[in-house]
């Protein structure tokens, strides 16, 4: 599990946007890129080429679940 301290300093490498912890992934709050980064063995894989770009509806669901603004 990623600590709150680590989550507070991590950001999306592409946009520098904040991230939210969603299950075993970190999701960027940036609406344009909507990147999801996997966490493997408690290590976030913060490589853009290894990330997934979420569709808008999935990204909105995650943001709402974490009380983040979607507009």
Q: How would you describe this structure in keywords?
A:
five-stranded antiparallel β-sheet; 5 strands; N-terminal domain of TfIIb; globular; 2 helices
- Global mean pLDDT: 95
- The CATH topology label is N-terminal domain of TfIIb
| Spans where pLDDT lies below 50 across 5 or more residues | none
**In one word, what is the shape?**
globular
Fraction in beta strands: 25-35%
Radius of gyration, CA atoms, in whole angstroms = 11 Å
Count of structural domains: 1
Description of the structure:
There is one protein chain. The protein is of the alpha+beta class and 71 residues long. It has a single domain, classed as N-terminal domain of TfIIb (Single Sheet). Helices cover 23% and strands 25% of the residues. The longest helix is centred in the C-terminal third of the chain and has 10 residues. The N and C termini lie far apart (29 Å). The mean pLDDT is 95.
């Amino acid at each position: 599990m990623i600590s709150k301290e680590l989550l507070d300093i991590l950001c999306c490498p592409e946009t520098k946007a904040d991230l939210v912890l969603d299950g075993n992934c970190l999701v960027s709050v940036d609406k344009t890129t909507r990147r999801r980064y996997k966490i493997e063995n408690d290590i976030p894989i913060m490589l853009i080429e290894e990330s997934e770009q979420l569709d808008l509806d999935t990204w909105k669901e995650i943001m709402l679940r974490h009380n983040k603004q979607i507009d």
